[in-house]
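Work Package 3 (structural annotation) set out to generate three-dimensional models for the target panel prioritized at the project kickoff. During this period the team completed the workflow that converts sequence records into discrete structure tokens, so that structures can be stored uniformly alongside our sequence database. As a representative example, we reproduce one entry of 267 residues exactly as it appears in the project archive.
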Amino acid sequence: MSPADQELTGRLRWLCRLRWLAASAIVALSLGARLLLGFPLFLPGLLALGVLVAMYNAILLLWMRASSQQGVLAPQEGKLLAHVQITLDLLALTAVIHYTGGVESPLGAYLVFHMIIASTLLSPLAAGAQATLASLLYGGLVFLEARGLLPHHSLGLFSGETYRGFSALLLALALISVLYAAIYLAGTIVQRLRQRESELSALTRRLAEQMTQAEASRQQVEEAQHMQLRYMYRVSHELRGPLSAAASLINVLAEGHAQAQPQEKTV
């Protein structure tokens, strides 16, 4: 498996760990806001939603474990799982926004967080598709509440029926524009980082190849030196016999010459 597959698998696991916190926060903050702060929240829906998030998170973890090979997901499986996770989270967050005031809910800003996550996990085109899905979900929620097709759970943060007026449309359009801006900015940063990472990986591979070639050259030089030493040893060994014989012959001749000189003087 490539480093990119390992990175995607690690981020998906991190997202699952984060989802446990989100499920707990939905339950705990809903109870606290209703019982301690007195916000008119629809507790049954929020509590059921927290349990639902925990349930599908457990299913996603089982899916990951069943599909992993040596702890790493295959590329297509990882991309599919990323799409499923983000889509389920967008549906859950839309329901939370609905139960906490619809267009009045301050939790709509968390859609931006999901767009950043989509940019880090998916390609720019796929992340743009998730931004479109988030826009349709949020815009559809605002429209259905404004038309009375969905009940509006007001938090009392706005006076009157703001969710039915033109201001609700402006708020929805503003948030949707921020979603696409977040996708563009985060996607640009992620693409540049991936390009730098790719260049660094290519440079690392070239350095490794050069080190391998240098090591091979060093071994060849050492082998040549060993061969040279063996050749010199063999030549010296082969020359040792003739040289010894020549030295012996010279010694014999020298001794004979030395013995001949006194005889010549005597005569």
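The mean pLDDT is 84.
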